[in-house]
Design a protein that fits this description.
CATH topology: TIM Barrel
Oligomer: single chain
CATH architecture: Alpha-Beta Barrel
Number of domains: 1
Low-confidence stretches: none
Strand order of the largest sheet: 1-2-3-4-5-6-7-8
CATH class: Alpha Beta
Number of strands: 8
Order of helices and strands: EHEHEHEHEHEHHEHHHEHH
Bound molecules: NADP nicotinamide-adenine-dinucleotide phosphate
Mean pLDDT: 96
CATH superfamily: NADP-dependent oxidoreductase domain
Length: about 300
């Protein structure tokens, strides 16, 4: 079963739009940078933005809501419900959705995703609440995020009992995290017609090549990735070499193209117009089978 998501090659991720804790929003980039990032993405052919109620504690959704009416053309909006332990079940999901719609200034969200699986409420109950929201016209397509194969299949069955399909599973996927290839999730998504949305497709900036052991990313990212920075340098050199053979594509563009070639829909984050425009340069061309195999091998060595 195919949905509109199958036709979309790439989106833009909006976690950094308002988030101070991980991305240092306000230090080095501002509301205006983020507005320009959104415009540059859309002007360069991007038609999907991914946000969540928790990004910047609602600020990401509010910013998107303010920018949407100014855009030269409409874009599809994906957002997420966070199943906090104190806020589970059908009614809280609907309330959270209403709040997201209000911040976004929309009557309907194109894709509504459960942000993380939780043992505290059944998948059936969450999917029933999703189906209710879709039947009310508040949600166009239903997704999950960070679900494993088994959880995804339970979600799909629950939705099918209500006459709906699971449209997407959003999970971490990049040359530095290929778990979804190894545990069968990517293949299962393709068999089921569920779009695998690849988050952190640039490994939170590492695959751009701009970070080195001498120049680590700031804040929490620096701590998360400190030990990997030296190990990834051979992979970065290969990304540069492969990019040079495609009229000077950047490591980030090659890394994003690799996820597209694997059948995923990457949603790279962008903090400013330059990053958004550069990332859109991952579209309109394809790596060869041989290049993909070389990148696969180099990523195994990291
Ligand atoms: N469902 C989930 O649980 C989940 C989890 C994580 C993310 N996500 C989604 O996935 C999206 C993308 O993931 P992400 O933001 O974690 O990481 P990412 O897309 O791998 O990396 C984004 C960061 O890389 C840097 N960057 C991006 N493009 C660049 C370019 N062309 N040149 C140089 N630097 C560039 C920027 O940070 P610096 O300039 O500071 O390096 C940017 O914020 C998020 O925005 C969010 O929508 C979802």
């Amino acid at each position: 079963m195919s949905t509109f998501l199958q036709a979309i090659e790439m989106g833009v991720g909006a976690w950094a739009w308002g988030d101070r804790m991980v991305w240092q929003y306000g230090a080095g980039y501002t509301d205006e940078d983020v507005r320009q990032a959104f415009f540059a993405a859309v002007e360069n052919g991007i038609t999907l933005v991914d946000t969540a109620e928790i990004y910047g504690r609602g600020r990401s959704e509010r910013l998107i809501g303010a920018f949407l009416p100014q855009l030269p053309r409409p874009v599809l909006v994906a957002t997420k419900y966070f199943p906090y332990p104190w806020r589970l079940g059908g009614r809280p999901l609907r309330r959270a959705l209403q709040a997201s719609l209000q911040r976004l200034g929309l009557k309907q969200v194109d894709l509504y995703q459960v942000h993380w699986p939780t043992p505290l409420v059944s998948i059936d109950a969450l999917m029933n609440a999703m189906a209710d929201a879709a039947e009310e016209g508040l949600v166009r397509a239903i997704g999950v995020s960070n679900y494993d194969v088994e959880q995804m299949m339970l979600a799909q069955s629950a939705l099918q009992r209500r006459g709906w399909q699971l449209a997407a599973n959003q999970v971490e996927y990049s040359l530095l995290n290929r778990k979804v290839e190894k545990n069968g999730l990517l293949k299962r998504c393709q068999e089921m017609g569920v779009r695998l949305i690849a988050y952190s497709p640039l490994a939170m900036g590492l695959l751009t090549g701009k970070y080195t052991p001498e120049n680590p990313p700031p804040g929490l990212r620096g701590r998360k990735y400190a030990r990997r920075l030296a190990a990834i340098q051979p992979l970065i050199r290969l990304l540069e070499e492969v990019g040079a053979a495609h009229e000077g594509k950047t490591p980030a563009q090659v890394a994003l193209n690799w996820t597209i070639c694997k059948g995923a829909l990457p949603i790279p984050g962008a903090k400013n117009a330059r990053q958004a425009a550069l990332n859109a340069g991952a579209l309109g061309w394809r790596l060869s089978e041989e290049e993909i195999a070389r990148l696969d091998e180099a990523s195994e060595q990291v």
